[in-house]
Every structure is written in C-alpha cells, then in structure tokens.
Design a protein that fits this description.
By secondary structure, this protein is mainly alpha-helical. Helix content is 72%, strand content 3%.
Length: 395
C-alpha cells in the first residue's frame, strides 16, 4: 500500500480542513475520519507518510476528491481500473474456492456491511481494495456452511457481489457487471428471501440499461413486481416501491411516457407509507422518488424538462440520502438545465455532484458529455470550467 511522504500532502490536508464549512479542527477531522489525532498532527506537519486508505478516509471526512490531496495527483479512476482484473479473478472460482481460513459469519457480516456503506457513499477505491479477498473468503464460507448458516452466507454473497458490481458498472466494465449480476441471481436462490430477490431484480436492470434493451428491462421489472411479496411491511413496501421507481426510469428510456407515469405514481404512493431509508441495500422513500421523477423527465426529454426543473426548484436532496443518489440527482439536473438553455446552472449542478461524490461524478458518461458541451458553449470563458472538463476527461 503506497505511503505518501511528501509534506505537501499534509499542507493540502491542513488547507482543506481550514476552508471546509464550518472550519474543522484537527480533533474534528480525527473523529470524522477515524484517524488518531496524533497521526493527523504528524501528517499535517509532514513528519510521517500517509497510506492510501488513511488518505481516502481523510478526503471523505473533508468532502474533497482524494486526488486533490495526493502528492502525485494520481487519479482514483486509474486505481479502480487497475484493480478490476482482481475482481474478475475473485469471481472466476466462485464454485471452486481454494482452501484457506474463513472468519466467523458475524465478522464477515461486518465486512459486507462496510462494503455496502462504501457503495452507497460512492467510495469505489475502497471497494476494489477490499472486495477481491472478501469475495473469495465468502465463497469459501458459503461452500463450507452448515445448513443453518447457508442462508445467511448466501445473503452476504449477494450483498458483496452487489458492492463489486457497483464498481464494475460505474466504470464501464459491462461484461464483469453482467457476470456479477448473474452471480447475485445464483446466490439469492439459497436465501429463500423474496425481498432480497426483489433487490436483485432491481440491480439486474443495469444489464438492460447497458444493452439498451429498455422494453425487455421493463418487462423484467414488472414480472418482479408481480412475483414480490405483498406490501404489508415497511421492507416489503420499499422493495415494491423501488421496483416501480426503476421501472419508471426504464420506461422513460423506452419512450413509454404512459408506463413511466404509471410506475412513478405507484412508487410515490408506496413511498408515502414508509420513511426514507435504505432497505435491503436500496434507498427508497419520498425523496428517492423525487430524484427518480427528475430521471424520468430527463429520459422522456423535450416537453418533460419543465417538470424536472419544477422538482429541483422546490426541493433539494438532504445529506441523509446516500451520496451516490444525491450526486446522481445533480447529474440528471445538470442535463436538464443544459438542454433547457441554462448552462451556468448546469455547471453549478455538476460541481455540486462532484462535491458530493467525486468518484461517481467523474465516471458518469453524462458528466463528460455535458462538460464537453459546456466547454464548447463557453469556449475560453471560464477557467473553472476548463479545469472541470480536464478533471473528468471531457473531450
């Protein structure tokens, strides 16, 4: 694990700590990043190096892209792409795991929960660092599990595969993503959990998005709704509501405005019955439905753009929502604003998405497309826009 020993790293940490709002003390940074206060002090004074893992924790606490703190300014996306083969190798032997020690299930559960938190927070470098070894260990645990443990070990596999898939899908490794989705579908059969099956159906939609098979994806989601449990408990309500949210978006991509409106109305009705939260790994509630309403409007385009601007004009996502979902809202909003002739507003939305989840924003194809368009529209007008376009590799 590289250690950054250049004193410039410490100076940059101290600088960003002093400009965050509200200004952070070293103790507050220590508490938020879960890094010892003495370590923070020594790093800022340039008296010790800092590992990638510690630097990422500090960057997350400061709310900045980790590349802004690195002495070598090495991009996080390169680290993730370089690690994708290790993820692929980890799942190649899912049914033939090697013989090695396995931690108790409660320890594996903690590791899987942490990976899910990184997924929701768009901390992809952390995922690729930890998941390859965790996936192989979970495969060993599942194959060695007793009948009483097999259900839980399968559920842990599903969650871990989903965290790995988030990286593969966001970074354009579509074949790897599709393999991970199929492994989720394989593992969920051993859970006998209809709610977890619904979450897998939700994630499977990625393969239809990637293939632009929108009509088929809509059929698959509608079948999942019909097969799901009755919405009589909060988790069951959220599971069905999430499927309707997803169905609304893919219906929009298919150009089926009627189906999109129907599914969005169903999702909205179900969201009114539960508080916003994360259910079986998927965020659902009134705010998530609002975000998907913007996504649907963008998918349908043209005359629907005003609806997206109306939603954004009267509401903004709270910090309680997962970072990945909040950044997605601003990415969708930026596209709406750009197409509506509001380039300055679009750039502000892109910058908001970057502040919330830089790794997610940097890898989103719409961000690169829209930044390139904004750069052409404004030409030599904005140094900040030029820097942003270079950051996300917009051409």
């Amino acid at each position: 694990m590289p250690a950054h020993a250049d004193g410039g790293v410490g100076r940059r940490i101290a600088y960003y700590r002093s400009v965050v709002r509200p200004k952070m003390t070293q103790q507050q940074l220590s508490d938020t990043a879960c890094v010892a206060l003495g370590t923070i002090r020594k790093i800022e004074r340039g008296e010790r190096g800092v590992s990638d893992a510690t630097l990422e924790a500090i960057a997350e606490a400061l709310g900045v892209d980790v590349a802004r703190l690195r002495s070598d300014r090495g991009p996080a996306n390169t680290q993730v792409r370089d690690a994708l083969p290790a993820l692929s190798a980890a799942i190649a032997t899912y049914d033939l795991p090697d013989d090695a020690p396995v931690r108790p299930l409660h320890e594996l559960r903690t590791a899987v929960t942490e990976a899910a938190r990184w997924r929701l927070g768009a901390q992809y470098t952390r995922i690729v660092r930890k998941l390859p070894n965790l996936l192989t260990e979970l495969a060993r645990a599942h194959h060695a599990a007793s009948p009483d443990e097999r259900t839980e070990s399968a559920g842990l596999l599903v969650s871990a595969y989903r965290s790995a898939d988030a990286v593969a899908y966001k970074f354009g490794a579509q074949d790897l993503s599709a393999r991970l989705v199929e492994l989720m579908r394989w593992a969920v059969l051993d859970t006998d959990d209809p709610l977890l099956s619904a979450s897998v159906a939700y994630v499977r939609t990625e393969t239809f998005f990637a293939a632009r098979a929108h009509a088929a994806g809509l059929r698959a989601l509608e079948q999942a709704v019909d097969a799901g449990p009755a919405p009589t408990t909060a988790p069951a309500i959220a599971a069905r509501g999430a499927l309707h949210m997803r169905a609304a978006v893919i219906a929009g991509r298919a150009g089926d405005g009627s189906a999109a409106a129907t599914h969005l109305d169903e999702a909205r009705s179900l969201a009114d019955r539960v508080p916003e939260g994360v259910y079986n790994g998927t965020a659902f509630g009134p705010d998530s439905v609002r975000i998907h309403a913007v996504s649907v409007a963008v998918s349908l385009g043209d005359k629907h753009m005003g609806r997206a601007l109306d939603v954004a004009g009267e509401w903004k996502p709270s910090r309680e929502l997962p970072a990945e979902r909040r950044s997605g809202f601003y990415i969708e909003l930026a596209r709406t604003q750009l197409w509506s002739g509001l380039p300055d507003d679009a750039f502000e939305s892109l910058k908001a998405a970057r502040r919330i989840a830089p790794q997610h924003t940097r890898e989103h194809p719409w961000v690169r497309e829209d930044a390139a368009t904004l750069r052409r529209l404004k030409r030599a007008d904005s140094e900040a826009l030029t820097h942003f376009a270079e950051w996300c590799a917009a051409t």
